[in-house]
Amino acid sequence: xxxSREEILRSxxxxxxxxxxxxxxxxxxxxxxxxxxxxxxxxxxxxxEEKVRLKEKLQNRLDSECLLHIVSQEDRSQLLNKxxxxxxxxxxxxxxxxxxxKRKPTKIPKGVIEKxxxxxxxxxxxxxxxxxxxx
Length: 135
Prior knowledge:
The protein is built from five helices and three strands. Helix content is 47%, strand content 13%. The chain has a three-stranded antiparallel beta sheet. It comes from Pedobacter sp. KACC 23697.
């Protein structure tokens, strides 16, 4: 089960800084880049199993202190960037917590096997008929 947006906002830490790239004077004046820092270990909403699953799935994105960093600097507005980081975090958590169903191996139907063998036989017959028989 995924935590609500308000619970995430209570536990997440937001850092702002000046964004790089184009933007003219706006880039030099406004701190529009937003970094969301989320502590997977300290978040009480998840069970121990869910925390282990999150650590496994997000191991490439977590730092040494089990903190998840998400950065957004696409918009010129700090508020929009903050919203985007929250959406990214919820999406990441949703994907990481999803448990894949175990695949049940199925038998290949007899009709499919027979059709494949007939196709192979007809192709072989075509190629056999193309041969030039030497006298």
